[in-house]
Write a structure and sequence with these properties.
Largest sheet: 2 strands, antiparallel
Radius of gyration: 25 Å
InterPro entries: SMIM1
Helix content: 55-70%
Number of strands: 2
Number of helices: 2
Strand content: 5-15%
Pfam families: DUF4731
Transmembrane segments: 53-74
Oligomer: single chain
Number of domains: 1
Keywords: Membrane, Transmembrane, Transmembrane helix
Protein name: Small integral membrane protein 1
Strand order of the largest sheet: 1-2
Length: 78
Amino acid sequence: MQPPESGVQYSRWDGSSWDEVSVAAVSSTGEASSWKRLSQKLCSGKLGTAMKLLGGVALFWTVFILGYVTGYFVHKCK
């Protein structure tokens, strides 16, 4: 009889006082694999480069517009 799989792994090197304990999050494999596939598709290759470029341009214009509006109200003549 084998113990059930858990997200905790413990390993010890012989002849040393070094111990390692790692805890992995346990989730349903179907949900995790679909999110992993989606993130790999959107963050790598030509599509990933295009997404990063579009995100950078959108962030630039958002900061630019917020700065423009803020500057308008700060330096508005009374």
